[in-house]
Specification:
64% of the residues lie in helices and 0% in strands. By secondary structure, the chain is mostly helical. The protein has one domain (31-164). Helix 2 (29-39) packs across helix 3 (41-58), helix 3 (41-58) crosses helix 6 (99-135) and helix 6 packs antiparallel against helix 7 (137-152). The termini are far apart.
Length: 165
């Protein structure tokens, strides 16, 4: 087929169009994870720590050797306020409870409170954003100024003010 026959003036007809895109095969999920770890190490560290907390919270009953309120001191003799040892990784408290078990079980509450706070904050922010976008005008302007004031107040001073009131 002649290329001259397919040309109309200087335009190229669709039969001549070729894709000039360079398609490189991607490595998949592991390749993307490695790329993320290399280029954003602090983000990867944060993601890893969140993974560890969530994993610990989910599998607390399998990771902790004792229940969070189990008095090991009564069962194993006088082991109150013991330092870290082979039996108790982080020692025991003044009531004879294993500190490691209490931390592992406490991770469930910490993760639930953390994710709950994020969900509530995101929900409120979305609701305010939707209302501001829908009503617009003076409501939008007022809301923007209130948010600017909120952001400009340092958190510590705000906490001191809230506690004193």
């Amino acid at each position: 087929m002649s290329t001259v026959a397919n040309r109309v003036g200087t335009q190229v007809l669709p039969s001549e169009v070729s894709l000039a895109v360079n398609f490189r095969p991607r490595g998949g999920a592991l390749h993307s994870l490695g790329h993320f770890i290399r280029h954003k190490p602090l983000g990867a560290l944060g993601g890893f720590l969140i993974f560890v907390f969530v994993f610990t919270a989910i599998f607390a009953d399998r990771l902790a050797p004792y229940m969070y309120d189990q008095d090991v001191g009564k069962e194993k003799g006088n082991i109150y306020l013991q330092p870290p040892s082979g039996s108790f990784i982080l020692g025991t408290d003044n009531l004879g409870r294993d500190m490691f078990s209490r931390i592992v079980w406490g991770s469930r509450i910490s993760v639930a409170v953390g994710f709950g706070a994020v969900l509530v904050g995101t929900g409120l922010a979305m609701a305010l954003g939707i209302l501001s976008g829908y009503w617009g005008g003076n409501f939008d302007l007022l809301l923007q100024r209130l948010i600017d004031i909120w952001i400009s107040i340092p958190a510590l001073i705000l906490l001191i003010f809230i506690v004193t009131v």
